[in-house]
Amino acid sequence: MKPRPDHQRSDLEVIARRVMREHGLWPEFSPAAVRQVEAMRGPAPPAGKDLRDLTALPWCSIDNDDSRDLDQLSVAAEPPAGGRADGDASRILVAIADVDALVTKGSPVDDHARNNTTSVYTGAAIFPMLPERLSTDLTSLNLAEVRVALVVDMVVGGDGKLRGSSLYRAAVTNHAKLAYDSVAAWLDGGGPLPPGVAAVPGLDDNLRRQDRMAQAMRRERHEHGALVLQTIEARPVFDGETIRDLHEEVPNRAKELIEDFMVAANGVTARFLAAQKYPSLRRVVRSPERWQRIVKVAAEHGAVLPAEPDAKALQQFLLAERQRDAVRFPDLSLVIVKLMGAGEYAVEAPGRDTSGHFGLAVHDYTHSTAPNRRFPDLITHRVLKAALAGAPPPYPLAELDELALHCTQREDAANKVERQVRKSAAALLLEDRLGERFDAVVTGASPKGTFVRVLHPPVEGKVVRGFDGLEVGDPVRVKLTATDVERGFIDFVRQTEGRRRRGRGPTG
Length: 508
What we know:
The protein is an alpha+beta fold and about 500 residues long. The protein has helices at about 10-20, 30-40, 110-115, 130-140, 180-185, 195-200, 205-225, 255-275, 290-300, 310-325, 330-340, 375-390, 395-430, and strands spanning about 50-55, 60-65, 70-75, 90-95, 120, 125, 145-155, 160-175, 175-180, 235-240, 240-250, 280-285, 345-350, 435-445, 450-455, 460-465, 475-485, 490-495.
């Protein structure tokens, strides 16, 4: 069925801009910020006596097909002479764009970034944290361009354990701009060698080495209780101005490679700042307050979890469930994510101790690998550069505390904008499917209401009748009764066993 023509893609963009403003986010850059960028003559020059020249290494970027704001590159190399811990050890280098080299603290562009704290990605429009000339050009690690970067240099054993690390500034060049899906298909043996890889001598072997090390690092993290979660991220697919479907973003081997390297790089950065006795803005996911509900969810799946929060036990349960029922694993993941609670930012400093990241099973974790897209990463880079230079921290503790709270709140606001547009897009897609019945899973049950997600299309809505007794994680059959594109409302009523009739399923 075609959606009614009275709601189009442009309506979603209007909704996105409205909701941005309602949550205190700025959808446009100030005239001063625009002038600041217009006055820039080019990327930051590769200068400074401490700057290393690593442009000859076969660096590559792996990101989404349409990504233009490239924050990081990676490469594998031999460990330094005499430092090889075992025959399978490798150096893994991650280069991260030095955005601070052009965006100075307190400048108009920095003011915008500090207010929004993140890029906001909606299906109708993207609201970048930095003006596009910066994020997609001057500070982006673009193909065949020399850029200044901060490098996290790690020696990793064949067992995935970190054997040593260092951080420094360097000039780098991206020799291959690659995409997740094509790299993953090639690594899995289901696709050809990507042309970008073939064009760089030796990059195929280098990528396979990166993949081996990433898998070893992932196994090591999982042994310590890092959680395997697979929530569904859906973005609208348009045919011109008309929405046709919602496309699910799914994990793959190339995405996991980058994730593993970024987790490791963020941990190295956090520990380096702590060792240098500099404060840092940590990313924290505290021990779940709703652990007993997680225990109950596991019991409903035939598993037993301990009475006190235990990341390793939860991980073992999740791995077993992914193997047992891969189709419904995203539903279970979403339930666990909601019960764990949201992440937040907190300041780590001498004499202070944050609680760590429960989901990653690590204590030392910061955000530092996406400074084109996240302000906390830019803050971290400024502190890191001060530590490398032996200069005073650029942010007093009181200011960092304020920024930690502000970044947490703004991240929540950005998530609400993205969620609102997803909901509006879903309502737009379902406008002409009233009366259809769907299998769903309960994703929220609180005084604010009971919410469910249907399997396809992957949309979430509110149960407005028959919600008594439903809890997070329960399977349920629902009927679509109403949609409201402007507010992103999708209403369902519960179909009880006694009344259940076979209707048209979620695929029509």
